[in-house]
Amino acid sequence: MGEEQGQGKKIVVVSASGGVGKTAVMVNLAAQLAQRNNSVTVVDADLSFGDTALALDLQPDDTIKEAAERKDIDNIQAYLMKHTSSVKLLPAPLRPEHAELISPDFLEAALNKISHGSDITLVDTQTGLTELNLRLLEAADQILVIGTPQMAVLKNTKLLLETLDLLGMKEKALLVINKFISPTAIRAEEISDLLGVETPVYLPRDDKQMDHSLDQGQPLVLNSPKLAFSAEASKLAEIIGFDTGQQQIKDKGRGILGRISLKGMKRRRMKNESIS
Ligand SMILES: Nc1ncnc2c1ncn2[C@@H]1O[C@H](COP(=O)(O)OP(=O)(O)O)[C@@H](O)[C@H]1O
Ligand SMILES: [Mg+2]
C-alpha cells in the first residue's frame, strides 16, 4: 500500500511480570535514539496506569483519551507532548477508568498515523498478554521483551517467549534482561539457556540512580551518560537503531524450553547460597 510508505519502525515493549522496568528502559531508549538523530515518539498504551509522562516530567492536558473521544486520528500529532530530549509522547489517560474509552481499533490507527511521522515509535504497555497487547504486538516491527534475573520473572518470561513463538512472532522479539547484577545467583549463561536466547541484552541494576532519575523525570542516559546502565542502554539503542536487532535463538532441537530446568537452577542457587 502506498500509504505504508515512509512509515517508521514500531517497537512494542512488553513483559510477563510487572515492575521489571518496561517504562524505565523505554524512556532511556527513547532518549538515546533521539540523541542519534532519530525522530522518536512514545505511545503510552498502559492505558490504566501509564506513567511515561511522569518519567519524562511532562504534565499532560489532553491525552489519548481526549483524542479517542473526538476520534481525532487526523490530528493525532496535536496530542503529542515534547520532552527536552525531542522525544514526543502520546500520554496515557489521566484516570484508570478512562482506559476503556480507547478502543484497540483507535489505538492501532493512532499508532499507524504516528509512525508515519516518526523514525521510531516506541509503545509502552500494561504488563502481560492482554488482548490489546496482542493486537499491538501484531502491529509491531520489533518486540522488546523485558525480564529480570529472578526465578519467577524468568519462568513467566519463558512462557511469554513460548507464546510469541506459537504466534509466529518470536523472530521479531529482542530479549532484554534488566536489573542485572553480576556476580549473581543466576548466571548469564543459565538465563540464556533457560530462555533459549543466545545473546540477551543485559542492562545493569542501579537502584539509587534509576529511581532518582524517574522521580526527576529525566532519563538516566541524559543526566549520567557514563553510568554502566547508560553504556549498556546505548548498545541496545545501537542494535535497535541500526539493524533489525534479531537475536540468535538457541539450538531449536529441544525447542524454546532450553536445556536446563528451573529446578536445577534453584538447587544450584541454594547450594551457592549455603556456601557463601
Ligand atoms: N536497571 C534498573 N536498575 C534499578 N532499578 C530499576 C532499573 N530499571 C527499573 N528500575 C526500577 O524498577 C521499578 C519499576 O520500573 P518500571 O519501569 O516502572 O517497571 P514497569 O514499567 O515494567 O512496571 C522502578 O522503581 C524503577 O526505578
Ligand atoms: Mg510501566
Automatic annotation (TrEMBL):
Question: According to the lineage, what is the superkingdom?
Answer: Bacteria
Tell me which InterPro entries the record gives.
AAA_dom, P-loop_NTPase, ParA/MinD_ATPase
Tell me which Pfam families the record gives.
AAA_31
Domain AAA, which positions? 9-170
Q: What is this protein called?
A: CpaE family protein
Its taxonomic placement starts with: Bacteria, Bacillati, Bacillota, Bacilli, Bacillales
